[in-house]
Design a protein that fits this description.
The protein is an alpha/beta fold. The chain has two domains: 3-149, 3-Layer(aba) Sandwich (Mannitol-specific EII, Chain A), CATH 3.40.930.10; 168-268, Response regulator (Rossmann fold). Helix content is 42%, strand content 24%. The chain has helices at 21-33, 41-53, 112-123, 127-135, 139-167, 185-200, 221-226, 253-258, 260-268; strands spanning 7-13, 58-60, 63-64, 67-70, 77-87, 97-106, 173-179, 204-211, 214-216, 229-234, 248-251. Strands 1, 2, 3, 4, 5 and 6 form a six-stranded mixed sheet that branches. A five-stranded mixed sheet has the order 9-8-7-10-11. A hairpin with a 2-residue loop joins strand 2 and strand 3. The longest helix is centred in the middle third of the chain and has 29 residues, at 139-167. The termini are far apart.
């Protein structure tokens, strides 16, 4: 499911203002309810606030991605609020939030919000994409920016996969585990950041994401045996005994996002 399939023009507000984080969430919940995706706004707002209390979803560069699964949600949806003046959101980089995207997901077996978070996180690694989101003048403009970036990402991923098959044959193998405090946005941003750095340096990289929906792309015993080193980028405890006897580089999620190339080089040293 594409991100743009979850955004309607009625759930996007461009050029808004807000007093604080709670006001941002309240406005986003109102916007997402415009899509008919919320049966109980108050219940969903409580779910979003509860999730936010576990750690800010302000992922940096002026962007926040609050989200929640709730029985109050009848269908997955995304709401958008742009804030040119910025609002304090306790973001990881301390910068005010200027673009907030709320992901609403039904409380069922599907983890659509995590799929959207993962894809959106990868797009947010491009400063140009963030700049285009901030510069959008209308709801249609904003949705178009996301649509173009998502389409380009699909094409780039396909080309990268093909390139990996040819160019990285015989290249050294590095493994990584990413796990942020809540197992959501930053877990996937870190994974994408490390993957991009590894590709640029012609290194095979396998990343295990320890996310809210469980372990993704789990490392195998064969992977570990063949690896030159393992990067553990985590802000909470993850299982590392399996790496006994291997070179392990332990770092934070933020560090893996800020300097992935240095970590890959350290793994190869």
């Amino acid at each position: 499911m594409r991100i743009t399939e979850l955004i309607s023009v009625d759930s996007v507000k461009i050029g808004g203002t807000a007093t604080d984080k709670n006001d941002v969430i309240t406005q986003l919940v109102d916007l997402v309810s415009n899509s008919g995706a919320i049966a109980d706004k108050e219940a969903f707002a409580r779910a979003v606030s509860a999730r936010e209390s576990n750690g800010s979803t302000g992922v940096g560069e002026g962007v926040a991605i609050p989200h929640a699964k709730s029985e109050a949600v009848t269908k997955p949806a995304v709401a958008v609020l742009t804030l040119p003046a910025g609002v304090d959101f306790d973001s990881i980089d301390g910068q005010p939030v200027k673009v907030a995207l709320l992901i609403a997901s039904p409380d069922d077996a599907n983890n659509i919000h995590l799929d959207v978070l993962s894809r959106l996180s990868s797009l947010l690694l491009d400063p140009g994409f963030i700049g285009n989101l901030k510069a959008a003048k209308t709801a249609e403009d904003f949705i178009n920016v996301v649509d173009k970036a998502e389409s380009a990402k699909f094409i780039a991923d396909a080309k990268a996969a093909e390139s990996n098959k040819v160019d990285l044959t015989g290249a050294p193998l590095v493994l990584a585990v990413t796990a942020c405090k809540t197992g959501v946005a930053l877990t996937y941003i870190a994974a994408e950041s490390l993957s991009n750095a590894a590709l640029a340096k012609k290194v095979n990289l396998i990343v295990e994401t320890d996310g809210a929906s469980g372990i993704g792309n789990a490392l195998t015993a064969e992977d570990i045996k063949a690896a030159q080193a393992i990067i553990v980028a985590a802000d909470r405890a993850v299982e590392t005994e399996r790496f006994s006897g291997k070179k392990v580089i332990t770092t934070s999620i933020n560090d893996s996002i800020a300097r992935p190339g240095e970590l890959i080089e350290q793994a190869l040293a």
